[in-house]
Automatic annotation (TrEMBL):
Cross-referenced SUPFAM superfamilies: Winged helix' DNA-binding domain
Classification via Gene3D superfamilies: Winged helix-like DNA-binding domain superfamily/Winged helix DNA-binding domain
Taxonomic superkingdom: Archaea
Protein name: Predicted transcriptional regulator
Source organism of this protein record: Halorubrum aquaticum
Any one Pfam family match given in the protein's UniProt record, by short name: HVO_A0114
InterPro entries (UniProt xref): WH-like_DNA-bd_sf (IPR036388), WH_DNA-bd_sf (IPR036390)
Length: 131
């Protein structure tokens, strides 16, 4: 079964989080929401999803490397550079790093990304790359 991460360009919307948590605490049934990552602006989106990072995500999903060093070998790059990119992806929740002995194993729980890239803002001025 395909697991999809939905990505959108907008500030993180946590307005319904408190209501959802209260409903859960009260024992009410709450529909699970789709996993969504909000990226604050187009510039950040471009940095996070640049080709080198996408290559890493694809290699992690396809090969399930046991370490950053193995991932670096798979993409033919230097381990310190790969570690820097993987840490950036982990900061955004796109990769998890599991302890694997002395190594850290990169893990991705989804196998598809669905990006919502609006061409206009609500004011009609278009997305701002340098917001």
């Amino acid at each position: 079964m395909t697991q999809t991460l939905h990505v959108q360009i907008k500030s993180a919307d946590r307005s319904d989080l408190e209501d959802r948590l209260k409903a859960i605490d009260a024992g009410e049934d709450v529909d699970p929401s789709e996993p969504t990552l909000s990226i604050e602006n187009l510039e950040t989106f471009g940095r996070v999803f640049r080709s080198t990072n996408l290559e890493l995500l694809e290699a992690i999903v396809e090969h399930e490397p046991e370490s950053i060093r193995e991932l670096a070998r798979l993409v033919d790059r230097n381990p310190p550079e790969v570690l820097e990119n993987v840490n950036e992806l982990a900061d955004y929740g796109l990769v998890e790093l599991e302890e694997n002995g002395r190594a850290k194993r990169p893990v991705v729980w989804y196998d598809e990304i669905d990006a919502d890239l609006p061409l206009t803002t609500k004011s009609g001025q278009g997305p701002k790359a340098n917001a």
